[in-house]
Prior knowledge:
Layout: H1 36-39, H2 43-50, E1 53-58, E2 63-65, E3 73-88, E4 92-99, E5 104-105, H3 107-110, E6 119-132, H4 133-142, H5 144-170, H6 173-188, E7 192-193, H7 197-204, H8 208-220, E8 224-227, E9 230-233, H9 236-242, H10 246-259
Helix pairs in contact: 4-5, 5-10, 6-9, 6-10, 7-8
Amino acid sequence: MxxxxxxxxxxxxxxxxxxxxxxxxxxxxxxxxxxALLSRLSRRSRQNLLERCENVDLAARMHLQDRGVxxxxxxxxxxxxxxVSTRAGDCLQVEIxxxxxxxxVGIPLILGMRISPHTCTVQVPGTALRIRAEALIHxxxxxxxxxxxxxxxxxxxxxxxxxxxxxxxxxxxxxxxxRWLLVARDRTDSPEIGITHRSIAxxxxxxxxxxxxxxxxxxxxxxxxxxxxxxxxxxxxxxxELSCNCHRVIQAAHExxxxxxxxxxxxxx
Length: 269
């Protein structure tokens, strides 16, 4: 565990909890929550969660959860991006999930576990709604709508994890980098992603020099624009052609978790 990056309560910038009035508006903020999972809940279920949450700032490289450590909080990301990783060998961390404003951090709690099997690290600074583990478990056991939403999200995560195993073992680095950028673009809802070459290299389990070479090729082809700690997708259609189909499978799974569509389309070929 990287002690230097782990968040404690002093590292956060808490804001007052947000609740919903009779007109369906957030009392302390007229805007809807930035988290897509929460925004799909009914007014009653959303308030049930929001009144137990606090809004917190996420800084790059902060740890939201650590492998082998008891889970104190769960998070509904509103902006920015995070990476869930597992250990491969003594020190190499490999990404198993990319998270953004459509995501939730705290799946072990949904499955009855209190110890995190993985590490979750902020990659792109942003904000999240934080809820204590005990409070989330209480809401899940008393609100069927919240429970169903979170279980659909678990299903989407299982699909993503299995797809990444196939992608990382069968597809070229160019395809994997394109897939990572497209998934990150979908999660952050922005074509510009604030991240370093080193962070993407760690996420994909490759050397930083390999990522630098790949980005140079993409930039020469007009697919991206690079600046310090930022990557902007300038031609999303061509990026999708370069990528494998894995990002479409991942996106479809998450759309299913948001809208609850029972007929998730997965290509047979």
